[in-house]
Amino acid sequence: MSKTIAFHLQKGGVGKTTISGTIACQSAMRGVRTLLVDVDPQGNASSWFLTETPHFELADVVQGKCYVADAVVPVLQVENLFLLPTFGIGGGLKNYSETKLAEEPYVLQDLIQELSQDFDHIVLDLSPGLGRLERSALIASDEVITPMTPEVFSLDGLEIFIDELTKLKKNLRAPVKHSRIVINSYDERIRQHRDILAAAQEGIFEVFKIPVDPVFRKAQEASCAPQLFKQKGRGLKVKTMNAVEELDAVIWR
Ligand SMILES: Nc1ncnc2c1ncn2[C@@H]1O[C@H](COP(=O)(O)OP(=O)(O)OP(=O)(O)O)[C@@H](O)[C@H]1O
Ligand SMILES: [Mg+2]
Q1: Which residues form ligand 1's pocket by a CB distance below 6 Å?
Q2: How many domains would you assign to the chain?
Q3: What does the alpha-carbon distance between residue 228 and residue 158 come to, in Å, rounded to a whole number?
Q4: Where would I find the H helices in 116-237?
Q5: 240 CA to middle of ligand 1, Å?
Q6: Once rounded to an integer, what is the mean pLDDT over residues 144-170?
Q7: Which domain holds residue 48?
Q8: What percent of the chain has pLDDT over 90?
Q9: Would the pLDDT of 174 be above 80?
Q10: Which residues contact 22 (CB under 8 A, 6 or more apart)?
């Protein structure tokens, strides 16, 4: 059965795109047909994985300007990985979410349902915030996993997110699961990071961590999957790879 996961916290820059993209690659690399959907008007996931601008984007699909099959493109370097892109420039998704989305809040849920016939794992990369677009993406997800950086403001952000999600769930057709968080850019040498991790582990969430690793940024700059990126023979740290594999092994169950 197909599963759709969104990585979300309304706070910016916590690693939503990095974790979405990396997990989508990891899932595809072990042979699962995987789709990454770029639901962020900034189009960061698309500029990460594409070197050429495709003909169509997500905004075209939801407005009926093309078939979904015309907009989904393969990520050439990663077998089994596909992308439903968004162009950062042009503002198609932003315009759509500001004008039409209010009338059709379930449009992404219907689209994901269609895509789940074709893809076993679907990952949604969302923009920061909790507006109409993010809400409709959460409605479309089986599970939302919250990435956060190890800082006090992220813990505050998590509380706000839980509160907002609880309100949102009242209006959902199907409840989205929210029981996991990922502490991203974790550095065990920093005491504050260890304290935030300990505080997170005291709560009700299953807690994962992804170490701080400069290879993520370098891979993004090189339009490359982090798992495939090598510079001077070196790629992701072993502990980063282990953390990515652990997350991938658990979340799709
Ligand atoms: N584990 C990590 N180690 C080192 N750098 C990281 C890590 N995770 C993310 N980064 C870097 O942090 C920056 C922000 O990450 P990212 O774009 O994934 O955040 P985001 O939550 O998607 O941001 P936005 O809210 O703008 O969509 C990027 O430059 C990325 O390369
Ligand atoms: Mg992002």
Answers
A1: 12-18, 40, 44, 127-128, 184-185, 210, 212-214, 216-217, 220
A2: 1
A3: 32
A4: 132-139, 152-169, 191-201, 215-221
A5: 14
A6: 92
A7: 3-251
A8: 89
A9: no
A10: 216, 225, 226, 227, 244
